[in-house]
Write a structure and sequence with these properties.
Elements lengths: L6 E7 L5 E4 L5 H10 L2 E5 L5 H26 L1 H21 L8 H23 L2 H15 L3 E3 L1 H13 L4 H10 L11 H13 L3 H14 L6 H12 L3 H14 L4
Parallel strand pairs: 1-3, 3-4
Antiparallel strand pairs: 1-2
Helix pairs in contact: 1-2, 2-5, 3-4, 6-11, 7-11, 8-11, 9-10
């Protein structure tokens, strides 16, 4: 697989020294399929700390464990259910014909159901420790271990833009949003910028964020200047990561601008 076909992961160095990873692994249900089918590469601006990359890799390992559990549970559900049903019927016949009690039927059903449920979970545990599950875990962990992060000038530029807003007042950051990016910079409408925008868009996809985006759009057109206070109060009250939200709106305004 060529470099161009690889999915890009981003390590963003925040001004306070913390690390932000942006990636497509937000949906656990699709995580296993994505890691299994695709190849990945990492990009960074300032060189990340080793412990940051280790923590990120450990997070992916944890997602692999959860994903494999779900994958095995779904794949083996029907055989597990059928075996549990058979155990229920056998247990019911046993308690009905062999064990005599003053409350026929009710006790047999409850006891048989208990045995069937226990059987179901014992088989579930066995499936999780199966060779098939182990092979899947090893396969996915190997794919994660192959992800290499390399320095990239695009990410370095993104970090610089982000750092200019970090630590500034909400009003100052809002002014930066309205000023926008220098569209003469070659990176602002690059394929890499669109990948980054896609990751940020998922981060800011709630109705609340979309509502503020519309307000900012009106401010860019020179309308509803009073809404500056509304956006400012919202950002401060919600404790929004406003500098990152600013980066998102700046990139989006350029990438989605009609040609």
């Amino acid at each position: 697989m060529s470099e161009k076909e690889k999915n890009t992961l981003f390590h963003i160095y925040r001004k306070d020294g913390s690390a932000l990873f942006l990636h497509p692994f937000n949906n656990l249900e699709k995580f296993i399929e994505l890691v299994q089918k695709e190849e990945f590469e990492g990009r960074y601006g300032m060189e990340p700390r080793v412990e940051s990359l280790t923590l990120f890799r450990n997070d992916l390992y944890r997602m692999i464990e959860e994903g494999v559990k779900t994958w095995v549970a779904e794949k083996r559900f029907i055989p597990r259910f059928i075996l549990s049903a058979i155990v229920f019927l056998l247990a019911y016949l046993f308690f009905s014909l062999i064990v005599r009690d003053p409350l026929p039927v009710i006790d047999e059903i409850l006891l048989s159901l208990g045995v069937a449920v226990l059987t179901y979970f014992l088989i579930y545990k066995k499936d999780q420790r199966s060779q098939e599950a182990l092979k899947k875990r090893v396969e996915l962990r190997t794919k994660v271990d192959r992800i290499i992060f390399t320095e990239d000038p695009f990410v370095k530029e993104i970090e610089q833009i982000l750092h200019k807003d970090e630590g500034e007042s909400t009003e100052s950051v809002l002014g930066s949003i309205l000023k926008g990016l220098d569209e003469a910079d070659p990176w602002v409408n690059s394929p890499m910028a669109r990948v980054l925008l896609n990751y940020l868009e998922k981060r800011f996809s709630s109705k609340d964020y979309k509502k503020q985006e519309k307000r900012i759009g009106r401010l860019r057109k020179g309308k509803d200047i009073r809404e500056i206070k509304t956006v400012t109060k919202w950002a401060e009250a919600k404790k929004v990561d406003f500098s990152l939200f600013a980066l998102y709106t700046k990139i989006k305004s350029v990438c989605e601008k009609p040609k």
